[in-house]
Amino acid sequence: MMLRLLLIALIIFFSVTAEAAAGDIERIQQKGQIVVSLNRGYPPFCMNIENTVIGLDVALAGLLADALGVKAQFIQPETYAEQIPGLLSDRCDIIIAAMTRTLKRGLRVNFTQPYFEVSQAVLINRKIAPPNADAYFDIVDIPNLKLGVKAHTTHEAFARQLFAPSSIHTYPTADAAVQALVDGKIDAMAADSPFVRIWRATHMDRYTQIRALLAPVTHEFYAFAIRKGDLDFLNWLNLFIDQIKLDGTLDALIDKYLIRMDWTSPSSEAMGLTQAQILRDKFLENKKAQIESQRKQSMNAGAAFE
């Protein structure tokens, strides 16, 4: 009887040990899905449009899942403060949420190499903006400024180094902060430069009311975040980022979501393109542009001979 109990205990021990040693890649592949934590309401990285979640980070997560041979499942925490605790409590496998690499966060999670560079930027009420202002630092000396930021982000931490506590108003999302600006409850809101640029481009009706200050003042980098302890998963993710940088996939996605902004059209594809399809679309666009350029050159040359 004792021998039988000992054998059962050994089987359980080795089963648990083998599962623990398998690593995140094997575990994700065994369950057939990777759970990705996204940044709620942060265009163009994550948006909910027509009951579908889309964005640059969403597309990257889809390509990552394809490379692992699994499906992507998404979660969107209510607040940014929940991102890292959610990862550490196994509610997700990875954070792809426009998350800036910082030394403080790096004490709790492992960051991959960067995939996107940003700067702090500002949307401000035109009535109080200094005439020649073009950057965040140009608003620091405005008396009694009310500045909105998304809570528990690098935007809040950065603002608290520049402004009095009474000047800073926190909101659960960047969209909520910018809505407070539109409603006149605050004078300005700070966010990363892509958010500010996209908001300006998609709200031209607010041009006379709100001004964007986009001159770079910081150099910050987005990266994927995973739990500490699995260097194989970290190395593979870095290889994935290297690959999409080198083959043009990342540039094509940046063009799609930040330059052409296809997602603003209701008829555009929301998500689900494979890496090959993304590169094909980019190739065809470049080819059309080249043909059009050659056509214009020929027409100009013909006109010169008339």
Protein model, in words:
This protein has 306 residues and is α/β, with parallel strands linked by helices. The protein folds into two domains: 21-116 and 221-287, Periplasmic binding protein-like II (D-Maltodextrin-Binding Protein, domain 2); 120-218, Periplasmic binding protein-like II (D-Maltodextrin-Binding Protein, domain 2), CATH 3.40.190.10. Helices cover 44% and strands 17% of the residues. The strands form five sheets. It has a five-stranded mixed β-sheet, with helices on both faces. Helix 6 (154-160) links the parallel strand 9 and strand 10 (168-171). It starts with a helix and ends with a helix. Residues 13-20 and 266-271 have low confidence and may be disordered.
The description of the largest β-sheet is: 5 strands, mixed
CATH class of the largest domain: Alpha Beta
Measured as a percent range, the helix fraction is: 40-55%
Helix/strand-derived class? alpha/beta
